[in-house]
Amino acid sequence: MSGFDLSIDGHIAHITLNRPEKRNALAADFWAELPKTVRDIDEDAKARVIVISSTGPIFCAGIDISMLAGGVADGLDKNHPAYGAAFLAKVKHLQNTFSSLEQCRIPVLVAVQGGCYGAGVDMITACDMRYATEDAFFTITEIDVGMTADVGTFPRIRNHLPEGIVRELAYTGRKMGANEAKAYGLVNAVYKDQDNMLVGVMDIAKMIASKSPLAVMGCKKTITYGRDHTTKDALEQIATWNASFLNPAEMMEAMQARAQKRPGNFADLPKISGD
User: Fold this and answer.
1) pLDDT tens across 243-274, in order?
2) Within 10 A of 21 (CB to CB), how many other CB atoms are there?
3) Closest C-alpha to 91, from 152, 157, 170
4) What is the pTM for the complete model shown?
5) Which of the following CATH numbers is that of domain 213-260: 1.25.40.850, 3.30.365.10, 1.10.12.10, 1.10.10.10?
6) For 186, phi and psi rounded to 5 degrees?
């Protein structure tokens, strides 16, 4: 049981969290199945965009506490010599789940309704764009259980919010509402309700899917690289990227399609061999 459903239609892969009775808490299987699913979509070129949404009144309650029943280091006692190594391996496993969203070649959009707690914040900050309903809120709840968020929130949320606001959210665990999140830039847009949000997000996904996948991939790679490097290094990277990947045929098709007011006929990204 992965805790989510997958559908693919019109070059858009839709991942839907489907444990509303558990407030879409992220159980053990989820952490292994999500990156596997994302890699399969990406490496087999099954879609050009991924959309993540959820079911029920809560987007995600964070990590399923049943995962912690055996402790945070696979049942090892704190005094066991291998405790630290086991803990590190567990955290790395969880971190890699959401890193798969950032590392895949295609954009990932997320649509948040209701509450987004703890590991849910880790997840949405690894996505390319975030959208929310008016009743949505975001809260770094780890502080309330005596720990520091370690699955991805802090390395990424600082890219979307001012440092002082990040510190306030981290130290207090308070809820940041959708409109405040939009004002600071954490979310792209706020919608009246989930139905309207999904229509709007899918429209954006369709627009992205209509563009050259190679160009979109270049944008994602270059924006992420530029975020994590100096301007000088980023300029070098995009020059090298275009020298290697700029495709005149794709450019010509894009211009002709625009002039003729028709959809572009673009090549999908190449499949990545697992051999």
Assistant:
1) 999 999 999 999 999 999 999 999 999 999 76
2) 9
3) 152
4) 0.94
5) 1.10.12.10
6) -70, -40
